[in-house]
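REVIEWER CHECKLIST
Item 1: Sequence provided? yes
Item 2: Single chain? yes
Item 3: Sequence as submitted:
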Amino acid sequence: MSRDAESILTLPQMSPQVLHRVIYGTTTPTSEQKSALSIRPAILAGYSRHKVRGCDYPAIIPSPTSPSNLEESSSVRGTLVTGLSARNVYRLDVFEGDEYKRQRVSVQLISPGTGDGSGELGGKAVDAETYVWIDGEERLEEGEWDFKNFVREKLGRWVGHKEYLEVDEAVRGLEDGVDPTGGRAMGMTEKEVVRSAV
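Item 4: Structure as written out by the authors:
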């Protein structure tokens, strides 16, 4: 498997507006910022995605697999983002908060489809990191979280949402020499902060 040092699988397929707002502080990044990233669809096997009770956003958790038939295991479609800087990853860590832990995973790339969201597995396996829910399964609903419904009904609330203020304040604090992580990052470089979150 190949390893991209700054590869993050955003789950679900994080909308470009939300991704750009989190990592760049704007929903309209410059052409240089856009070209720094490679965004591809991918599948994470062995996980399931659920709606967090009372929230608009989802969580993924490991799902049990059938030893006799790996085809029966759950999988989640996400967006593999490569080309992220340590600063971008830090902003994603702050945005995801302490309900999630960034963990290494292996994902399967999806070959390009016809533009309608289709595509087939068949791409190579790639090592990446993703945010796995650690705040208790009792907070999750049973059913699958619906990305299309989120985009249609809730995305407008998330572009410019207060969640980003926490990210912006944390980054400003880091720039001003103030530790926005509650002591986890004292005396660490930004890259060390990012590594310590894994």
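Item 5: Key structural point noted by reviewer: The chain has a mean pLDDT of 74.
Item 6: Recommendation: ____
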